[in-house]
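TASK: fixed-backbone design
INPUT:
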């Protein structure tokens, strides 16, 4: 495995961990939407960063899902969730964590759909790359 693939895999594992926390909280009515949305946002952010790392894109420190998706798009790959939806999820990273009167821009079900799509897409991208990664490793071993 290459260092790039290993780092992308690590980010996807972290995204899946946040996704699991999100799924545990999303159906609990007492869990605040701010907390639920935070874990959804974090999951999507880390999955998008896994794709960026896999494609060897330079990523700056950001929580901006739309910016990450745009970076991926400019590399020739279309993200599975539209950028407008990602913009609605962005405030869960910071702003909504400190806001006691949240006006929900998305529902828990919409968050769930976005999380599922992005995590699944990132996992598929890594799975596809793992075949390429092993072929590269095999060639390097023969050299």
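OUTPUT:
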């Amino acid at each position: 495995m290459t260092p790039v693939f290993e780092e992308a895999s690590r980010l996807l594992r972290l995204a899946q961990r946040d996704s699991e926390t999100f799924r545990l909280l999303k159906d609990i009515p007492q869990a605040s939407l701010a907390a639920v949305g935070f874990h959804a946002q974090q999951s999507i952010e880390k999955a998008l960063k896994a794709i960026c790392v896999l494609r060897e894109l330079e990523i700056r420190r950001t929580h901006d899902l739309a910016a990450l998706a745009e970076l991926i798009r400019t590399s020739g790959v279309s993200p599975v969730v539209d950028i407008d939806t990602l913009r609605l999820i962005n405030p869960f990273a910071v702003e909504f964590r400190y806001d006691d009167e949240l006006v929900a821009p998305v529902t828990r079900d919409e968050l769930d759909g976005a999380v599922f799509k992005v995590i699944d897409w990132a996992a598929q991208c890594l799975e596809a790359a793992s075949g390429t990664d092993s072929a590269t490793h095999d060639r390097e071993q023969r050299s």
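COMMENT: The chain has one domain: 3-142.
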